Amino acid sequence: MSNTEEKSKLKTYILLHALLLFYSAGGICSKYAANQELFSFKFFLFYGLLLFTLFIYAIFWQQVIKDLPVSVAYSNKAITVIWGMMWGALVFGEHITLFNIIGALIIIAGIMIVVYADHGE
C-alpha cells in the first residue's frame, strides 16, 4: 500500500471514529429525554436533538462505508459501547467497574482483529 493510500485509509478511520463518537452522544440526549415529563418542552427538545444526531449520523455513515468494507465499518461500530460508558461516567456520574474495563478491552481487541484481518497483516 502506498503512502498516499495509507493516509487516505487513516483519514477514513479517523472520520469513522469521529462519527461514532458523535453518534454515541445521541445516548446522552436519549437519557435526558427519558428523564423528562412525557410531552413536555424538554422532552421534545432532547428527543429532537436525538433525532437530529441520528439524521446527521445516517448521512455521514453512508459516505464512510463507501471507503471501507462493511465488515470493518460495522465491527468498529462496537466502539460506541465504550463511548457510551465514558459518556455515562462524564455526564451522569456513573461508575466504571473493572468488568467494564475488561469488556472495553475485549471490544478493542475484536475491532483490531477484524481490521488487521481486512488488511491481511
Q: How would you state the average pLDDT, rounded? A: 92
Helix/sheet category: mainly alpha
Fraction of residues in helices? over 70%
N-to-C order of helices and strands: HHHHH
Distance between the termini: 12 Å
Count of the separate structural domains: 1
Global outline: flat
Strand content: under 5%
The radius of gyration over CA amounts to 17 Å
| Total DSSP E strands | 0
Largest sheet: none
Low-pLDDT residue intervals, each spanning 5 or more residues: none
Number of helices: 5
What does this structure look like?
This protein is mainly alpha-helical and 121 residues long. It has one domain. It is built from five helices and no strands. It has helices spanning 3-34, 41-64, 70-76, 79-92, 98-119. Helix 1 runs antiparallel to helix 2 (41-64), helix 1 crosses helix 4 (79-92) and helix 3 (70-76) runs antiparallel to helix 5. The longest helix has 32 residues, at 3-34. The chain is flat and about 55 Å long. The protein starts with a helix and ends with a helix.
Q: Can you give keywords for this protein?
A:
82% helix
